[in-house]
């Protein structure tokens, strides 16, 4: 990450140290809390708004949600590109927040203006409610699209922007804070989500959708104001050029020289320390023998270098830039294991809420829990798990492994993926029981009737998913951030959210395929969930997750960490820091899974 080019020049060394540090963290985290509160407050109960206010069928509403989630996460790639290439992370966050604000205002108007939604159903049991018109849906989709672009500007930049504030403290100081930094980040997101799942969902269910969407919109406005107020305090890293452009240049150069022979001696490949300096402030990546066909991009041929000595980067790349692409390529197989985890989690916001709506939800005689509020058990369990992980699990694991972090992020991800399997299995078992109770009471053909079964039967699957998130999601973020080239940290964060994008799209594909495949043969997914077989769908996801765990373990076995060349602290001589294989236990944060 080219943070050494941050706006720290002008008045000498003393001014350099006035910006960044812990004093900026309250503003960044307050912004993140308000942003996450707004996002969670909008997303938590959207399935109810679509099915009950806009009268969408269940499958269509579920696919709308997963497509929205997928597109939202996909835009982080555009956000990372803009932040790294043109506008920087600060202005990317500002632009994203403004887009999100516009989208939320559109949803508020949709909820409070009667002409922007269909009339309410005259009977709560009718299946012929008037659906939303094309114009009404256009307002909805345009608002959601603005929110997609807003999230794309915010998500890939917030984590890296927060890291920029501490980058001036040196690599060793930041390494000691890295694990806790990501734990704090996820804890902050979870706390805001927990508040939204209780307060906002209650207002949506009991007060009205105007206030239910309006409060998150106000929260987003507050987040923008708080973030902008601290503008003079921030370290603002200048854009160092797009990582995507560099990757494209390596691919183009390698393809152009696809017939050239790769030299056995890696020292014959092109190196340029001065050219790579802005994107390798912590050290250049060393040559590796894997994916050697990409090394052709660093072979010098006639015409690659101009008379002034400057290389044509679309014809010739340095070894460091080639290794950037190799690092990303090596990360992708392990990264892809998180896609199935996102697919499994996506249904907690759709099918599970519809299940909860048919169950007994009373806490007392006059108070009942809104279906979407059940997500607090995922969020709450995640928060508790993060605290226990840092305070209890890590010290105990440290005694066994001898690692400062207790376990490696590879092990943390593997534990999370394993736990998640039991969460989906529990969901299948609970749905089987819910259908059985509905059948025993003659409710199979009355889908809106309340099944005499407590909604708290759904708590275990939410809680297990929360524990899995505390291990897998935090571990994956740390893995991506640590193993990505330093100049591609925004790209690494984009990959994390892109995982959620692909998971949501895969969920849409699975729901559509299963619906078509079982139509007329059991109809697993239908509006009448008492006649449907959502439990069978959950068992299908469970099987896919078992296969996914095997895929992760196989990819982990063959993974090697990035090798780095660092500058000697007492001189200009470079020394090699060859990071160990993750299969060698006890080798630091990259050590292997026991």
Question: What's this, in brief?
Answer:
It is built from 16 helices and 5 strands.
Q: What features would you describe in this structure?
A:
It is a single chain. This protein is mainly alpha-helical and 594 residues long. The chain is built from 16 helices and five strands. Strands 1-4-5 form a three-stranded antiparallel sheet. α4 packs across α7 and α5 packs antiparallel against α15. The longest helix is centred in the first third of the chain and has 55 residues, at 58-112. It starts with 12 loop residues before the first helix and ends in a 17-residue tail after the last strand.
Give the secondary structure arrangement, pairings included.
Layout: H1 13-16, H2 25-43, H3 46-53, H4 58-112, H5 134-164, H6 171-206, H7 209-229, H8 243-256, H9 273-276, E1 284-285, H10 319-346, H11 351-357, E2 359-360, H12 376-401, H13 409-440, E3 451-454, H14 459-483, H15 489-518, H16 534-557, E4 564-567, E5 574-577
Parallel strand pairs: 2-3
Antiparallel strand pairs: 1-4, 4-5
Main beta sheet, described?
A: 3 strands, antiparallel
Strand ordering within the main sheet = 1-4-5
What's the alpha carbon Rg, rounded to whole Å?
26 Å
Count of helical stretches = 16
Helix content class: 55-70%
Q: Quick check: average pLDDT?
A: 81
Distance between the termini: 32 Å
Q: Count of DSSP E strands?
A: 5
Q: What structural class should be given to the helix and strand makeup? A: mainly alpha
